[in-house]
Amino acid sequence: MLTRGCRFRVEARPVLAFAGAADVELDPALRDVRVIRDERDIPQLGRLGGVLAPDRVERVYTVARNRRTWLRA
Fold first, then answer.
1. Which of 15, 35, 60, 63 sits CB 3.0–4.6 Å from 5 for a disulfide?
2. Any bridge partners for residue 45, and if so which?
């Protein structure tokens, strides 16, 4: 939906980030989801690649916040 709305390829990867959680237990079925359990793990996200130019970041943000984008999802 983001690719269609932005008119350029937008790749997305699922991430779960927990803030202040004392303990997190994960279902083994979540193999394709990156899990950030601690703020010290945030630099892992940078190693995933996928850097967008600032104007493209703004476009993705605008399209993602538009509820009409998701009507056909």
1. 63
2. none
Strands (E), the chain: 15-17, 34-36
CB 60 within 8 A of CB 4: no
d(CA 59, CA 45): 21
Strands 15-17 and 34-36: parallel
Give tens-digit pLDDT for 39-66. 888 887 777 777 889 999 999 999 999 9
Distance CA 73, CA 66 (A): 13
